[in-house]
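Course exercise 7: structure representation. Students receive a sequence record and must write out the corresponding structure in token form. The form below is the worked example handed out in class, using Iron only hydrogenase large subunit, C-terminal domain containing protein (1095 residues). Read each field label carefully; the graders check that inputs and outputs are placed in the correct fields and that the protein name is recorded exactly as given.

STUDENT ID: A-19
EXERCISE PROTEIN: Iron only hydrogenase large subunit, C-terminal domain containing protein
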Amino acid sequence: MSVTVTINGKNHSFPKDTTILDACRKIGVFIPTLCYHDDLPASGKCGLCVVKINGSSFAYACMQRVSQGMIIDTNSPDVLAKSRRAYSNFIDMSVPPKSKDIEDLNRYLFPRNTVRTRDPDRTNSLEFNPSECIDCGRCTRMCSDIQNIGALNYLNPRIRNNECISCGQCIMVCPTKALTETSSISSVLRAVASKKIMVLQTAPSVRVSLGEAFCSPVGSIVTGKMVKAAREMGFQYVFDTNFGADVTVVEEATELLDRLENKTGPLPMFTSCCPSWVNYVERLHTELIPNLSTTKSPHMIVGRLVKTYFANSLNINPNKIFLVSLMPCVSKKDEIKRMQLIGDVDAVLTTREFIQMINMHGIEWSSLKKSEFDDLMGECTGAGAIFGVSGGVAEASVRFLHHKITGNKLGPIEYTQFRGLKSIKTATIDINSNKFNIAVCNGISAANELIESDKYRNFQFIEVMACPGGCVNGGGQPKLNSRKLGTERMKSILSIDQKKDLKTSAENPKVQKLYSTFLGDYGSHKAHELLHTHFEPQETAVLAQRKRSQSMPIVGYGSTSGTSMRYGRIVASCMGTTSAPMNTLSVKQLIARKTAVFIISTIGDGEFPNNSRKFIEEIRNSMEELSMVRFAVCGLGSTNYKHFCVAGSQLSMLLEQHLAVPILPFKAIDTSANDKGEGAFESWCHSLCSALKLKPPKIGIHLYFSFVKIDDDSILKNPLRPLTFEYASIQKSEYLTEDGYSPEINRYSIKLPKGLSFSIGEQLLILPQNPENIVKEVLDSLKLNPNQALRLITNDNTLENYVPERVTTYYLFKQYLDLCGTPNRPIIRAFLEVANKEGSELLEKLLADVNKEYITKYMGDISTAEFIKEHVKYGIPSLDLLMSSCPHMKPRTYSVASSPIADRRVVSIIVEKIKFGIDNKRNGLCSSYLQSVEGKTIPVCVVPGGFEYPIDISSPIIMIAYGSGIASMMGLIQNQAKNSGPVMLIYGVPKEEAFVKLIKEIEDYKAHDQITDLLITSYDKGGTIQKAMEENLALLWKYWQDDKAILYYSGMAGSMPDDIKKIMLNATINEGGLSMEEAMVYNNRHPFNVETFVS
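STUDENT ANSWER:
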């Protein structure tokens, strides 16, 4: 089914489930992206791909799917402004790393000097360079969501001594060079310089990918040029690893028959030619080590034969040979360092490293002539060639079994059941009544799924390749924009097989000669001595803990940005277990381990994170009763989005439907809160530990920021403005409330600076400042020099941050830390970290209060400034600690109550004086701030709002507003043209007497025909907006029956928006005569624009 949408003014049709990003790419419309990759689930983390939907709302193109009639704008000024701001927050580096992805986005660059503090890391296979990392999260999503390993940490990726299997798929999606293979180029060059006898062997997948670096189409077969390039580099001998693949086939298939006939080993027998798969078994499933085939991988077999068979044939001293394997795989670098295999191969070069060496040697690729492999081990069959693709080992083995059992050549018979990209491929092969149940796992995630399901026991032989698609998509290959392009490489591998006269490994005359003159029979003692190996568990503290956790409660996370993962690890530490991506879990594990805790984010339009969907689907389809399972679910999300924590609530309900018993009620945490939801999470974690009779964790402060003292007198007189803000001046203020009534309401006219203007429907952000006397008192209590110049270092660029790179201590506390709001739990923890014994006892008591009674009792009516002044006597936290824990100043959002028709640089806003605290004795910071700065400059930023005037000005408009929410409507009304459509306004006020002046202005609009129908209702006299609507359904339908009608609501959040929708549905049914289903479809076609605020 296709849908029609409008993109930048032009109509296009796409399949229903197409994302906006894919749709735009299909028609050649550029949308900037950085965290997105075709082979990974979308996360929207970078925020660059923002687009405007239906003229009013914004969405991420990578996550939002197209729908019928959708109007999409990708390049309007407000869209570009949002994208630039996202880039500013995302690429928080003075000099972004060099890469095509980054260079394509440089037009969005706003340089900042930021020092990254993450640690470099290195293994035999991989290197992590934090100076190149832009924190896009691609590597962690690849590891967690696609490979289902979960070894990488969002905040500080580590690749040593943990679950990492060295597959290198993280490298393939890294947009910079933060993750690379551990280079072997220098060791190879040293060997050439030392006059070693240089021997190169090359895997089948390299010859179908190497040419891509030199402008050949993907999948081009460049075998001859590859061999010639190697000889020009100084390699005297070049062999084909496919020869080793043929030997692997005959040894591995012989081993399988021996296990079947003589029970010499457990079944199923797994292939062992993929070193990442071997790492997976040795690290995470040691119980399967006996099931691994003992046959060495093809390149290790060639390595051993070069040092023995080849050296003997040419009478060469093996110690003078330096053997290099040219591989598509980074894990092979790790394989040659295994104690059992050391010496067989001296170095491994990836395809990318070989490309570097071609360029280093100045080899002109286009003028290279072709060269052939050396003869002794240069011939191979089609069976050896197909090792490069998923299913190739299984197919090659079946061909050999056919030859072995029937005694005949393969002939026209083909065993192609294992080809393709399906994750798990299975078949029962019948050869002369000998039945072989065989499975192929396309990717390590598929292997994990098969193992966890226990269905692997149904097979006798299982092939596993860690990289989806096989070695053609290995971690050492040239990078592709999408793994889908790798199918061209697969086709080329299969075409090599197709052109081979010899299809079965046993037919290879060079292999026959090897066995007849050197090894003896297949599987002989000498063959075992040279061509087989053994495996053993890899033990580290991390892996040991993971294994212990298999009998402990489950802690699973579903994450896109890493917060769920971090919280999962905190919970797991309390329970003495480890956390894991939810997709690595199963219903079987739930039943076995009986207690489960899940922490899950909500993404997109109320969807589950990708690394949880498989597990969710398994629960949905399961017929198992889970009454023996206790569980707790914590959902993470932002209240800024419609489907707040929907994924978590659905998971909780799903488990209850299967009769699982909740340990605690479902907990929804707002990660857009001042402290990113850490306080709410800590309270929930304390409650969970209490329910499970566990000691709650001590949650420390993560240092998101740090400072360096600098000498810079310039910022004393001229402080740098807040990032993304400009300075505007308040020209005039007007008091709108009648004397003696509340709330107090003021109107401010603000002059925007040159170059900054506003459009109808946009909003104004104002960043308030703390009162000077409060700032001085706090700085004095903390013993800080107000005039000290500082340089800010941001350690987590995902945080919204307005602080410029250079700032004085005074301005830091005046402009950027919220001293007048209520203190949060992180600042309590910050003071706890430095408190003396007396202070520790008090603060520990506050943090232990999971019911938040510290707010109402002890802290009662206290501000952050008052908390700081009261607790400095117990110890003073560092400035780094304060900046990372203290609530930051948040910009306040105001709807514009004026039209740009009069003056595009003069903005009018309506501000209600906020009162809070015990007996409402405290004043809201921003409303007080604005009263004190008339005639002065204030930091402002114009941002897109939820409202825009209809494109078709004849459209009927229904406006509904409450209190100061009328500001949005006033801007729209003032923008009315002479031939505009009818306007209906329903205005609710808390107290009619307090809003007399505003009501009179609204009535004047009515008198001047800018409003067609006006309903005003006062709540203190028993009226409500809902009542006014229900009493005027016919009038509402008069507007609503027009297909172009638009509804706007601005006012209190809560149930009001849903109530309005229900009443409009009733109007459509009762006045329009439509059925419930018809009315829902009809109403969904009408734009429903909402701006809400919390009093």
